[in-house]
Amino acid sequence: MTGNGALGIGLIGAGPVAQAIHVPHLAALSDRLHVAHVMDVDAETAETVASWLGPETRHGTSMEALLADDAVDVVAICSPHAFHVEQAESAIRAGVRAVLVEKPLATTTEDAERLAAVAREHGVPVIVGAMHTYDPAYLEASRHWGDLPDTARHIRSVIQLPANARFAGLATQLLSAPGGPPPRDLSDPTQRSAAIHGTLLGLAIHDIPLLRRFLPQIEGVDSAGALSPFGYRVIAHGPDGRTAELIGHIGTSWRPEWTFEVWGTDTSLRVEFPPSYVRAGSALASIGTRTFGPYVHNGYDGEWLHLADLATGAAAPRYPFDELVADLVYANDLASRAAKMGAAA
What we know:
Layout: E1 7-12, H1 16-27, E2 33-39, H2 43-53, E3 58-60, H3 63-67, E4 74-77, H4 84-94, E5 98-101, H5 109-122, E6 126-128, H6 136-142, H7 148-151, E7 154-162, H8 164-171, H9 189-202, H10 208-214, E8 220-226, E9 230-237, E10 243-251, E11 257-263, E12 268-272, E13 284-287, E14 290-292, H11 299-311, H12 321-344
Parallel strand pairs: 1-2, 1-4, 2-3, 4-5, 5-6, 7-10
Antiparallel strand pairs: 7-11, 8-9, 9-10, 11-12, 12-13, 13-14
């Protein structure tokens, strides 16, 4: 922790998400948080990102060196999915105050449960970077929606965005642009199945915790299709007759839409989220005729501020680890069911 009381952040992985999202957001929260150490397997990337942050920011290719750095209080895992659990576990055992793990928490339920056990044993809070669950407008709406989670009949999630590289390029001067999705022959059942599975876990996963709030259990997937060049359209239902429609598409359009809607017996919810790479404040949420937001901070700010409170003992975890594991199980189940249905379509 610095002299002004700001917590030191160790970034494990300094790719496009860290460069275009986390570094700018942390810079705007410098009274509470600052990047103390940047680690990346590419030494030049680590050095360059650290140079943006000032001469006191250390850098390197060693996670062990980052975890041994006394200036690091909190760790953010921004590496490829397969390394999340191992790196988070190492950070917890090294005695950091709190850990942020980018989506997904793990690739398997077993790994997530193992990480949960380690976190509980050492008393280190862990959050997942599902930024919409920390959005101030969404959280304020949750205080006013009453019994909507119980009375919801239909849920609709729409994510329509231009390619990440276009937004990321505006957000910062990236060292390397995010790679596009691999070309797939969607007429081939195997490739179509893989495309649906991958896009749900890569794009829909942002709002899976929101979906699970209103559709707690998936009984079946009624239809699933892959959209070109990158996307999905899925319709699912629960055991009590409620339904959900998920549409996600990344293409060439410059008119983005990121909406989450719920219709219940007596009321409805609509949340309009800003695109991930745009610092435009919070979402705009409405319940019936009541409106909440937009607020100054967005969901990324919200998750970092909550992490700072967790690290200093000023707050309890908003989402217990059991909920984080349940979100992962739900996401994997939905992706597997949709991929199977999409292959047969």
